[in-house]
Amino acid sequence: MGKYHHVYEKLLSITSEQNVMVDEHLKKHMYTRLGGKADFFVTPSSLDEVQQIVKLAKQEDIPFTLLGNGSNLIIRDGGIRGIVLSPKRFTAINREGNSIVAEAGARIIDASRKALDEELSGLEFACGIPGTVGGALYMNAGAYGGEVKDVLRDAVVVNRDGDVLKVTADQLDLSYRSSNIPEKGYIVLQATFDLKPGNYDEIKAMMDDLTYKRESKQPLEYPSCGSVFKRPPGYFAGKLIQDSQLQGKGVGGAEVSTKHAGFIVNKDNATSTDYIKVIEMVQETVKEKFGVELEREVKILGEDN
């Protein structure tokens, strides 16, 4: 907590004590099971609390970070200073007409399952994406030919000043695995996905097929951050890594998956430093062998030890 000690009392005046954790190990909250401590890990219970926390961070000039479940993120071993806000208590998913309205802390998988239950088609591609709805918007998540920008109508966000805004999908500049959400400093609170009426059995068949493909090809038995690299033009990252004979190679407890070369797995209590070193090893080797620069899809945040 260090120099931010005085902030603790102010956070407690905004939200309950159970929602404010001090020097919290972030790896407990990360899909990758990697990462150091946060000075404050805060899980607000209401929109008003989110707004007040954002305003507090600005007034006190405290570093502020938004964190979902970290399925496409590596937190360095030194952790994150200041306030880390998690929307984990915002998990409601509802139908409105032919749309699914989901809060930011809900899993995008659960939004796709709600769409199935309501016989709405369009979110099938998301049935195996492990991130939150907020994270899915942040990186325009996609799989098997579909992506968030195909179905997103609008989002409710809080900006850096603590103001609540409704923004359209077009205003988020969604493109391949990116958006302007980090640049704008938005905190996503809710997303509305426009879908089409469909047949339950047909939607389920497609989701079952995609789930089978995912489970049979991806190393889900170990923590990971999913596909580490973006697809380079004209190539497949996994094929380049496989052809570089890097599968099974690693550093410490992290290694390139033997099941899917595009994944790096936390096989044995890896540190973030281990994981990042494996990423760099892969990039260097592929560049040396094929002259192709692999760009990270996964984000890296935080401080070194």
UniProtKB/TrEMBL annotation:
<dbReference type="GO" id="GO:0071949">
    <property type="term" value="F:FAD binding"/>
</dbReference>
<keyword id="KW-0961">Cell wall biogenesis/degradation</keyword>
<keyword id="KW-0133">Cell shape</keyword>
<comment type="function">
    <text>Cell wall formation.</text>
</comment>
<dbReference type="InterPro" id="IPR003170">
    <property type="entry name" value="MurB"/>
</dbReference>
<dbReference type="GO" id="GO:0008762">
    <property type="term" value="F:UDP-N-acetylmuramate dehydrogenase activity"/>
</dbReference>
<dbReference type="Pfam" id="PF01565">
    <property type="entry name" value="FAD_binding_4"/>
</dbReference>
<feature type="active site">
    <location>
        <position position="177"/>
    </location>
</feature>
<keyword id="KW-0285">Flavoprotein</keyword>
<dbReference type="InterPro" id="IPR016169">
    <property type="entry name" value="FAD-bd_PCMH_sub2"/>
</dbReference>
<keyword id="KW-0132">Cell division</keyword>
<comment type="similarity">
    <text>Belongs to the MurB family.</text>
</comment>
<keyword id="KW-0131">Cell cycle</keyword>
<dbReference type="GO" id="GO:0008360">
    <property type="term" value="P:regulation of cell shape"/>
</dbReference>
<dbReference type="InterPro" id="IPR011601">
    <property type="entry name" value="MurB_C"/>
</dbReference>
<feature type="domain" description="FAD-binding PCMH-type">
    <location>
        <begin position="34"/>
        <end position="198"/>
    </location>
</feature>
<keyword id="KW-0521">NADP</keyword>
<keyword id="KW-0573">Peptidoglycan synthesis</keyword>
<dbReference type="InterPro" id="IPR036318">
    <property type="entry name" value="FAD-bd_PCMH-like_sf"/>
</dbReference>
<dbReference type="GO" id="GO:0005829">
    <property type="term" value="C:cytosol"/>
</dbReference>
<dbReference type="GO" id="GO:0051301">
    <property type="term" value="P:cell division"/>
</dbReference>
<keyword id="KW-0274">FAD</keyword>
<feature type="active site" description="Proton donor">
    <location>
        <position position="227"/>
    </location>
</feature>
<dbReference type="InterPro" id="IPR016166">
    <property type="entry name" value="FAD-bd_PCMH"/>
</dbReference>
<comment type="pathway">
    <text>Cell wall biogenesis; peptidoglycan biosynthesis.</text>
</comment>
<keyword id="KW-0560">Oxidoreductase</keyword>
<feature type="active site">
    <location>
        <position position="297"/>
    </location>
</feature>
<dbReference type="GO" id="GO:0071555">
    <property type="term" value="P:cell wall organization"/>
</dbReference>
<keyword id="KW-0963">Cytoplasm</keyword>
<dbReference type="InterPro" id="IPR016167">
    <property type="entry name" value="FAD-bd_PCMH_sub1"/>
</dbReference>
<protein>
    <recommendedName>
        <fullName>UDP-N-acetylenolpyruvoylglucosamine reductase</fullName>
        <ecNumber>1.3.1.98</ecNumber>
    </recommendedName>
</protein>
<dbReference type="Pfam" id="PF02873">
    <property type="entry name" value="MurB_C"/>
</dbReference>
<dbReference type="GO" id="GO:0009252">
    <property type="term" value="P:peptidoglycan biosynthetic process"/>
</dbReference>
<dbReference type="InterPro" id="IPR036635">
    <property type="entry name" value="MurB_C_sf"/>
</dbReference>
<dbReference type="InterPro" id="IPR006094">
    <property type="entry name" value="Oxid_FAD_bind_N"/>
</dbReference>
